[in-house]
């Protein structure tokens, strides 16, 4: 399945978006050196350019990047980024805070309900408007975008009830071989859950927040989506094929902005 086509309703226009891009990137450092994961080159373009253009397909207007190590390089990219319809700002952590810590640090800037929070080193080819509609209809504290993958051994697995509420998170098991639903690293988080995150300790959204919530607090929106992360050399090498349908669209959009 190719990345979703631009929807007609521009659903993300009122939604604040936080991209978590402050990780150290130790697994991919032998390939990238000091380049932040979010700027990993794919077909001559930084991964961030694909993410931003993907979000604008759904009408995104406000994106904040939670940055840490490598922040100066990302800020350099943003100085040259030009899209009048998209405001992109950086929130720079004073020291590594983890994913939950980054959300707490940016909390005062996140004013919409819900907020879209996403990992800055992964891409899932889902319809974000359908994701948002599902979240609003389901009424959960938060909704996790999940992808079905053929070999889930390198990921943690997500187990749901019949009503799509999440019952359990299963730890990564490299011995596991088989098809399963995984967390794709994109979340719609209600204001109430943002407040809960602010009050909970621990650096990790997944382990210190989501796994400690009562079963059924979160919903899963899942499908047969293309999914990649660029956190390992193997995944980065495969990213070009997954993102190819966005490459021409991004180039055309940037040409239009420059003109």
Topology:
Elements: E1 16-21, H1 29-32, E2 41-42, E3 45-46, H2 47-56, E4 62-67, H3 71-80, E5 87-92, H4 98-106, E6 115-119, E7 122-124, H5 128-138, E8 142-149, E9 157-160, E10 166-170, E11 180-189, H6 191-199, H7 205-209, E12 218-223, E13 227-229, H8 233-258
Parallel strand pairs: 1-4, 1-6, 4-5, 8-12
Antiparallel strand pairs: 2-3, 6-11, 7-13, 8-11, 9-10
Can you describe what's shown?
This protein has one domain (16-258): Spore Coat Polysaccharide Biosynthesis Protein SpsA, Chain A (Alpha-Beta Complex), CATH 3.90.550.10. The protein has helices spanning 29-32, 47-56, 71-80, 98-106, 128-138, 191-199, 205-209, 233-258, and strands spanning 16-21, 41-42, 45-46, 62-67, 87-92, 115-119, 122-124, 142-149, 157-160, 166-170, 180-189, 218-223, 227-229. The chain starts with 15 loop residues before the first strand and ends with a helix. The protein is globular. The strands form four sheets. A seven-stranded mixed β-sheet has the order 5-4-1-6-11-8-12, with helices on both faces. With 259 residues, the protein is an alpha/beta fold.
């Amino acid at each position: 399945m190719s990345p979703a086509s631009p929807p007609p309703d521009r659903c993300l226009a009122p939604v604040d978006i936080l991209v978590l891009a402050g990780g150290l990137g130790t697994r991919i450092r032998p390939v990238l050196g000091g380049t932040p994961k979010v700027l990993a080159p794919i077909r001559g373009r930084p991964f961030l350019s694909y993410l931003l253009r993907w979000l604008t397909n759904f009408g995104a207007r406000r994106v904040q990047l939670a940055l840490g190590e490598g922040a100066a390089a990302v800020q350099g990219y943003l100085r040259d980024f030009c899209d009048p319809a998209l405001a992109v700002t950086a929130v720079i952590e004073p020291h590594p805070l983890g994913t939950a810590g980054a959300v707490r640090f940016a909390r005062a800037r996140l004013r919409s309900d819900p907020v879209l929070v996403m990992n800055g080193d992964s891409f899932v080819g889902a319809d974000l408007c359908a994701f948002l509609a599902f979240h609003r209809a389901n009424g959960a504290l938060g909704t996790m975008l999940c992808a079905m993958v053929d070999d889930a051994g390198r990921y943690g697995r997500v187990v749901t009830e019949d009503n799509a509420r999440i019952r359990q998170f299963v730890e990564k098991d490299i011995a596991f071989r088989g098809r399963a639903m995984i967390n794709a690293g994109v979340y719609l988080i209600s204001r109430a859950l943002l407040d809960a995150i602010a009050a909970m300790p621990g650096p990790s959204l997944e382990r210190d927040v989501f796994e400690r919530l009562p079963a059924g607090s979160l919903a899963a929106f899942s499908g047969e989506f293309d999914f990649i992360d660029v956190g390992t050399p193997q995944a980065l090498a495969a990213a070009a094929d997954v993102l190819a349908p966005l490459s021409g669209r991004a180039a055309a959009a940037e040409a239009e902005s420059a003109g």
